Structures are given as C-alpha cells and as structure tokens.
Hints:
Elements: E1 10-15, H1 23-36, E2 41-46, H2 48-55, H3 62-76, E3 84-87, H4 93-102, H5 107-111, H6 114-122, H7 131-134, H8 136-145, E4 151-154, H9 159-176, H10 182-192, H11 195-211, H12 214-225, H13 232-243, E5 254-257, H14 285-293, H15 314-322, H16 325-337, H17 342-368, H18 371-399
Parallel strand pairs: 1-2, 2-3, 4-5
Helix pairs in contact: 3-17, 4-8, 4-18, 8-9, 9-13, 10-13, 11-12, 12-13, 14-17, 15-17
This protein binds tryptophan and iron/sulfur cluster.
Iron/sulfur cluster binds at residues 297-298, 301, 308, 310, 313, 315-316, 331, 335, 340, 342, 345-346.
Amino acid sequence: MMPGPIQNRRTLSGMRPTGQLHLGNYHGALKNWTELQYQYDCYFFVADWHALTTGYDDTSRLEEYVWTMVIDWLAVGLNPGVATLFIQSRVPEHAELHLLLSMITPLSWLERVPSYKDQQEQLVEKDLATYGFLGYPLLQSADILLYRPQFVPVGEDQVAHVEVTREVARRFNHIFGREPEFEQKVEKAIKGLGARNATLYRTLRKDFQEKGSGDSLLRARALVESNARLTVADRDRLLGFLEGSGIAILTEPEVLLTSTPKVPGLDGRKMSKSYGNTIGLREDIDSVTRKLKAMQTDPARARRTDPGDPEKCPVWDLHRIYSDDATQKWANEGCRSAGIGCLDCKKPLIEKVVEEISGISKRAQEFEENPELVRGIIAEGCEKARTVARETMDAVRQAMSLNYR
Ligand code: TRP
Ligand code: SF4
C-alpha cells in the first residue's frame, strides 16, 4: 500500500484536562500541534477518561477543566477548520475498543510500562493500585487505534505507550487479521530463519495446512518461538502465517517525536503543574511580570558585578525560546562579562512573554464570551471523530465475529 499524499496522512494526539494550560504545555506540545494541523489530517482530543485514572476521587472540576483546555487550544491557534477537535468520552467507541483489546492484552505488557510504577511511586497520596490505572496505556492504545493514524505526535514520556499500542495492534492482527504486504514480509522473515530452518518451517507448515498435522504445527511454533534472533514483529508474522491469513484491521502507528525546547519553570526545574512553578497561558500580566522578575537565575550572580554562566540559568532557556539572535548574543555576553544585571537580562524576555500571553488571553476571552461557538466546534468534531471510530469498530467487530444482530 503506497502512502497517500502527506496532507492526507492521519495524525492523532490527546491531552489530559488538567486545568489551565501553561507555557510548558504550549511550547512543549501545543505549539507543535498548531503547525502539524496544516501538514496532516489532524485529530486532537481531550482525554477526559484518562484524567479519571489518577483523579477518580474528585471529579467536581473535570467539566471546567475540559472546557478551559478546549478554549486554551482555540486561543493558541488550533483551527477547527482544518483539525478535528473532540472529547474522548463523547466517542464511546473508545470504551468499546478498550474493552475488546483488554481481552487480548497480557497483564505483563501493562505492568512493565515504566509510568505504571513511576507514577505510583510519585503520587503516593493516591491509591493507584486500580484496574483503571493499570489500563491507562491500553485505553491510550484504543484512543489511537480507533483512528488508524499514521502518526502520533507525543513527547518522550509517551513513547512507551505508543510502543504498547503497536504491540497490541500487532497481536490483534495476528489473532484476527493480517497486515499489508504480509506475504512479502513473511517471505523475508522465513529467509531470516536461515536455510535449514526455513526449509523445516515450510515443510512443517505444509504438513499442517495440507494434512492437518497438529504435531507439525506445534513443532513449527516451537521452531519460531525458540529463535531468539527474530524480531517480535517477524515472530508474530511467522506464527500468524502458520495458521492462516486475513486483512490488516488495526494499523501500527508511528511516534512523531517532536523536538520541543526545554521549558523551565520558575524554579529551574521543568515547568509542571505538580511543581507549582508554572506561568499560565492566561495569567494576568502583573502576576506574569512579578513571577519572571523573581525567577531563579545562575546563583553565581549573587551581586550585580559577579559574572554568570547562561548555561546554568533557566532564564537563558527562555531566551532560547523567545529571543532573536541579537538579543541572545547580548544576554549571553552581558551575563558572562557582568555587563548587564539579571533584571536587565529579563526585561526583553518579559516583554515577549507578556505579549504572547496577552494575545492568548484576548482570544480566549472571545471564546469565553461565546460558549455556544465552542460547544458547536466540539459537537462537530465529535461527530466527525465518531464517523471514523464507527468504521473501525465495524471492522473490529467483523474481524472478531461480533457483528451479529
Ligand atoms: N497519555 C497522554 C499524556 O498524558 C494523553 C493521551 C491519552 C494521548 N490518549 C492519547 C496522547 C492518545 C496521544 C494519543 O500526555
Ligand atoms: Fe541568567 Fe541573564 Fe542573569 Fe545571566 S544575566 S544569570 S542569563 S538572568
């Protein structure tokens, strides 16, 4: 199957509604989405069910968070004219696919996802020994596979989840179907077994297929499974090919890793809501200015006359995001020679951030004043998403022989 023109390639990503977004969310992800939407057929959704996996005990502000985030998205320039914006829970097919995939997903695949243990250790105040939390990556797999996208733009921290998604799709196809160019890939995989084992594999398969020899099937399986050099994908191909064939039902997505800048928080750690070191996308200007003036700098510059090192200063990371070359040069040299003070250094930065946040706030305000418009955009996006989701579910139900009435 030849890939279509790049604009037609479907791309999907989601974000949990955690309340008002901050500059870290913007420069770390959202800004990239606003560019991708003009390059691909983009689907972006609010992962409200995912928010429940860690925040199940207090759902009182979820609705507010959902709409705040949608407005943040629109305010930064996500364009409902080109991208499909929707809410996960409004497309119940996500839940259906999650359920069906749960039947074929080994527990160990979920238990070994790094975020499972990491988050449990980090969020000790929460009881995350729940079924839903363990299933987080599988719900994400359902989110993705439902739309059969080519690309999933996510940050480094989500790569393991997309990897699980690929494994789940592969297993689904192995059990219920098969992939494009299956024969060619199988041929290659068979050759990869080495001449002797390749001949043995073919003989055993033929024996099983033509004479129904169960013993040959078991021996062929053992041959494949004991081969440590095979990739997981080739192993599944060879195992699938022993018993039959079908069509590709779920497609394995690729991560679209985006090189996003490091966005430092006010204390120099990564900007994150859980650190309380953020600047909100719609924060009021006085507060933004105050926060930036107080922002952590290179501790070596205790006095105005002490030179500093921008590489040790989070303000410098912000310059790299916001300032042009000339300003960066000025800041870098002024810092190292103590030619400028930290407040001088921050001044052009504060201007840029204030300008950005003022613009976002103004556009957000317009959407705040027009809730019907926002509801309408989302209603339309949900409808469009559902149409795609329904098609996938038809194929899934059919492949699983669940399409009876
Ligand atoms: N887990 C993602 C995050 O925390 C959010 C998410 C949920 C997602 N479902 C998704 C991202 C599907 C990409 C695709 O950022
Ligand atoms: Fe940081 Fe600028 Fe101060 Fe240097 S002068 S320490 S880069 S704020």
